[in-house]
Amino acid sequence: MYAIVEIAGHQFKVEKDQKVFVNRLATEEGKKVSFDNVLLIGDGNNVTLGAPAIDGAQVSAKVLKHLKGDKVIVFKKKRRKGYRVKNGHRQSLSEIVIESIVASGAKKATPAKAEKAAPKKETKKVEPKAEAKPAAKVKEGTQDLSKMTVAQLKEMAKAKGIEGISSMKKADLIAALS
To answer: Which pTM value belongs to this model?
Structure first.
């Protein structure tokens, strides 16, 4: 059984008991860590593909040690200009060993705790008071239509039952309302 899982911003194809070097994780050595962003699970001829991730799938691993990778030399040069810069870099890595791959039934730990701590609040729909203002302008009727916005003109046209207002420009709306 294998899985393609996203760990620390990179995708890895992992199997049980496999050692993997990943970007440094913020966990201590010897601690267990689980990754729930599983993109694909393959078990023989049976392949499960997520969109983008498989719900309930989880890969658990144990952090063996933190270390630095091999030195990478970064050399920059511009010919005939006397410009040469040499820098070195060692990437911080974590070595992990994959302990188990669970295809379904795994629960996400962090969101469940967040839901229990803060229950969802019901939001009440409040009627906007903006409807009262256009109604007053509709009653006046003799106001200069060119000073009104397109949205206000469309509301007036809708109230009068004029069709095809969605494709009309401001000048067309004023002509239809006059």
So the answer is: 0.55
